[in-house]
Give the backbone structure.
Amino acid sequence: MKLKETVLLIVFLNVCINISAQKYFNKEVKAVIKIDKTSEFFTFTATAENLTPSDLSLRYEFTVYKTDSNGNTSNSKQDNRFFFNGSDKKVLSSVNVNVSSKDKIIILLLIYPISNDKTQGAIGKDRIVITGKKNEVGLNIELSKERVKEIESKKNSQDQDTSAKDGVFLEGLVIQKTLTKSGRDFYRYFYSEYYNRQIKSPKNIVIEEVPGQRRSTRISVKVDGQLVWQFFARPKKDYLKEMAFTSLKRCLIYLQQLQRQKQTLTRY
C-alpha cells in the first residue's frame, strides 16, 4: 500500500507542477508563431516579445514534427540563444510548409531562460497543428487554446469598438510627416525595424518633423497622439539608426502599457 500511495503522490505532484507551470507561459516573454500564406507555401515565423522592462538571456527551440499517412514520424529543430532587451520584440526563425502536404504537422515554439537550473521549464510557448485534411482556404490549421482565446478577445474588442465601421477594422499605420532628408532617413530606418520585427500596432504611429533652433529640426514620435520620444535631427546615419531603435522601443513600451491597462479594465 505504501508503494502505491507513493506512486500516486508523485503523479499528483507532477500534475500540479505542470498545471502551475502552464499558468506562467507568455507572462514575461510572449511566444507567437505567425502565419503567412502564399500561393504554394505557408510560412510560419517564430517571434518573441519581452513583456518586461528587464534585459534577458534566453534560448528558443522551434521544432516541426511530421507524421505521414503511413504513420512514419520525423522532426527538425532549430535552436539558438539570444539576448533580449527589455520591452523588445524579435523574429527568431521561420519555416515553410507546402500547402499540398497531406502530412500531419505540429509546429512548436518554446522559449527558455538561460539558467544553471536544469529543471527550469519554458516561459514562452506557442503551438500550431496542421492536419492532413484540407478546407476551403487550404490546410486545416489548429491554433493553441491561448491563441484562440487571444483572437476571440481581440475580435470581441473590435466588435465593441464604435470607431469600427461596417465591421471593418484597420490596424494602426506608421505615418510620415517629415521635412528634410534626415527626417526621411529616420522614417526609413524606423519603418524597416518595425516591419522586420513584424509589429502590428493597433494605434497609429506618427513621425513628425518641425523646425527647431539654429537651423535644425526636431523629430517627434507619437503613438495615438501620445509623445513617446523626440530628438533633434542630425544627418549622421549611425545616429539616426540609434534614434530609430530607441523610438521603436519606446513605442513598444507604450503599447504594452495600453494592453495591460486594457486587460485590467476587462478583468474588473
Remarks:
- The first strand starts at residue 29 and ends at 37.
- Residues 237-267 form the longest helix (31 residues).
- Helices lie at 2-22, 145-160, 181-196, 237-267.
